[in-house]
Amino acid sequence: MIELTTPINEEDVSRLQVGDTVEISGYILCGRDAVLPKVLKMIEEGTVGSLGIDLHGQVIFHTAVSPAGVGPTSSNKVEIESSIKPLSKAGIKLHLGKGELHKETITALDEYNAVYAVIPPVTALLASKTTDEKVIAFPELGMEALHLIKADRYPAIIGAAHGRSIYEK
Q1: What is the residue range of 102's domain?
Q2: Phi and psi dihedrals of 87, rounded to 5?
Q3: pLDDT, tens digit, for every residue of 61-108?
Q4: Domain harbouring 11, CATH code
């Protein structure tokens, strides 16, 4: 088991390989199809710094945050998968979700030394490993707003790294 703590540095990402099991601790962003296009717009406009967080070395979990907890949504939804390249370019090092990504997305991850990890849909387990949460942008989206949570050893498997995918046939 490889322990990762946010922010994740370039060297840690460089060492990760497809199939590695990891535990992620520290503050991570949570966003899915409703909010990610808004975050991309902020990056394009140069206003993402107003969120009060640095995207460099950050993790983004493709999830909503509800009273029931957090659980992964499909990362290959158009609004989510299309955000992976620009978010990686902006400094995100680990994208956390579920499902197979397109080859172009895997190539983009490699281009920006970022990785994708799959996390099992275990909302009850993750609730016990989430120690803090707050909305940092777009509160009008409710549980799909951009959240910042504090994770304590979230389990995941590296699903795409360095141009390879766990889903390769």
Answers
A1: 2-18+31-155
A2: -70, -40
A3: 999 998 888 889 999 999 999 999 999 999 999 999 999 999 999 999
A4: 3.20.130.10
